[in-house]
Amino acid sequence: MSPSNRSSPSDPAARIHDLRELLHRANRAYYTDADPIMPDAEFDRLLAELADLEAAHPELADPNSPTQRVGGEPIEGFETRAHTVPMLSIDNTFDEPDLRAWHARLVKAVGGDGSLFEAQESGGAGPVLLADAKIDGVAVSLRYEGGKLVQALTRGDGAAGDDISANVRAIRAVPLTLDSKGGPTPEVLEVRGEIFMPLAEFERINAERDEAELEAFMNPRNATAGTLKQLDPRVVAQRRLGFVAHGRGEVSGAHAAGFAGSHSAFLKALKGLGVPVSPALAHSPDIDEIVRAIEGFASARHARPYATDGVVVRVDDWALQNQLGVRSKSPRWAIAYKYPAERKTTVLREVQHQVGKTGKITPRAVMEPVILAGTKVSHATLHNYGQIRKKDIRIGDTIEVEKAGEIIPYVVGVVAAKRPKGAEAIVPPAECPICAGPVEIDPPEGDPAQGGDPEQETTRRCVNPECPAQMREKLIWFAGRKQMDIDGLGEKTIDLIRAGGIPLDAFADVYALARHRDALLGLERMGETSVENLLRGIEASKARPLARVLGSLGIRHIGSSNAKLLARRFRTLDDLLAASEEDLTAIEGFGPVRAHTLHEYLQSEAGRHTFGLLAGAGLAMPNPDYREVGATIDSPFAGKKIVLTGTLEHFERTALAEVLESLGAKVSGSVSKNTDLVIAGEKAGSKLAKAAELGVEVWDEARLIAALPAEHRPG
After folding, report:
1. Residue 15 parent element (H or E)
2. Angstrom distance (rounded) from CA 469 to CA 641
3. Which of 243, 366, 522, 618 is the most buried (most CB within 10 A)?
């Protein structure tokens, strides 16, 4: 009978025990045995049931329960800790003669005539070698004490690494408790291995990053490293990282002797305990057999669900490993055969200038199709316009294309000898190819118009916030609670309106929706109540202050904080529009780059058009944040750095932050030694604890209300 059916809901302790056992077994089946026993949806359902039972019965809590992989709060940083046994790197080789030379040195170092290998199963004149796939991931050391995971460290410099225990606990492929059914476990068992990102997960995450207009990860290893650097383990849990063991650190205490002998026996013992291991490609004293395995894996590796970049070959016997010893940072008894990246030549036919949702303009090569690393490719990244100039890439050139990490095709360079006459230079767009709006070049040193070196350019971006390529995301931001706070105009409603053919392609279109009331009522899920609430929310937003309006438009470099700085300096929108670049540069917190970008937008036809339409739609844009130059604020909050935490009865936090800032305070999201005051409501959490730790003054809501001017107190 399945454990999921064996226990009764009336016996919560037994049900919790059975669910934990089943879920641990499911993880082992999926990650270690590659033989899943249940679909993901069933796993998630049982995990949710277990979480509910544990919440109802806290006395049955277990830190190694499958529900405890992810903690509640993000960590604040990574601590560096020493490895008990150094984590060595492995020397690389890229050709067969070098591999054979390494093997010859091994044979000579341990006797040469074979006499030292008489005890080996092979009986040959060389040590037994074990070859397995070199996974392209991030090396980690897992420490188990009494069979329970207590620490996970990165390799670091080999002597010490970052403690990423909280993140590793969130990886389902890593067992929190070793399976005692697999045999006795050493008192201390350090397992070295590789954390990696499956290719399917890599593609999913890059698709999400592309949607958010973030730089794509170039290969799974970069994606894995970026994931493990996250301070919030919940992010790690959402990315289905894998783990494979490939070595050992400290093995000591009771039962340690059972884990001595050879690398192959060690891996077999680990698999018995539920730790994922990589299957051997070859296990032989014959170097020819090892070479054949490497040659065969060159193509077979593309069928694996994770990225590999070579084969690790090592002496299997631990006694011989010890005899061969190590250099300063690498062992003499192991070597990594690295496959060269496959590179092909083809012809560049066109360059597309793609505009992303944040305005970033990216050059994309369109080329004659070519088979690369087993797949047909006709597009490749050119990175940016600075790289195009450095490499002198032109339309019609014969180009060399490679896959970065054998995943994303990119243009390596040009075969200059094959350049045709009349090869056309690639001209970066001087204006947005979608909306013809102004563009910003980053860094400014790469802008030829400013006397810069065009090879330094890394990013070209459309700065028109009403660019159609960006507009959907801009509208979602514009209507958000911390911006214009338009009740009822969320992401789904925006998509529904646009799909229904109702004009919603500019900020001012929001204020024209009242004229389309009947069309709105005709949309699915838009009843009369929903439409009336939406139109009321739109009308109410016309009274938002100038700082809110400026911060809602998605103007490059102008978020809520910088919008407030502008509102404090300029009394009206007209004053801001009349400001010179020097006026903007003089604002505290603004520099020449931000001032130049903003001034260019304010003076552009697109910028003037946007503000004109908003004013014409009836936005009043009052400015309570304005302060006369040199004026001081008589307020107990003036000059103080304040943090808000918990739930307040009489205030919405965003609105309260605006009140406090109008009284001269600076409201921050985190507590530090520079914080002057924490205002805490109900259910205040880690920020309140941090304030107590640092000795920061804490006020409750009653004390806050008493200190506020009468006009800002709740009615």
Report:
1. helix 12-31
2. 38
3. 243
Other C-beta atoms closer than 10 Å to the C-beta of 319 total 14
Mean pLDDT throughout 516-540? 91
Per-residue buried b or exposed e for 150-176, using 16+ beta carbons within 10 Å of the residue's own CB: ebbbbbbeeebbbbbbbbbbbbbbbbb
Instruction: Note the pLDDT tens digit of each residue in 230-247.
Output: 888 888 888 889 999 999
Please report the pLDDT score of residue 478 as a whole number: 92
- Do 227 and 235 form a contact (C-beta atoms < 8 A)? yes
Coil, helix or strand at residue 462: strand
Is 687 a known active-site residue?
A: no
Residues 6+ apart with CB under 8 A from 380: 364, 365, 367, 401, 409, 410, 411
461 contacts 359 by C-beta, under 8 angstroms:
yes
Please state the length of the chain: 715
Q: For tokens 């970069």, what's the residue?
A: 222
d(CA 283, CA 313): 10
pTM, rounded to two decimals: 0.55
Q: Which domains are seen in the chain, by residue range?
A: 3-68 (1.10.287.610), 92-97+111-286+304-331 (3.30.470.30), 463-629 (1.10.150.20), 641-712 (3.40.50.10190)
Nearest to 140 by CA among 184, 193, 180: 193
Map residue 523 onto helix, strand or coil: coil
Catalytic residue among 134, 271, 474, 690: 134
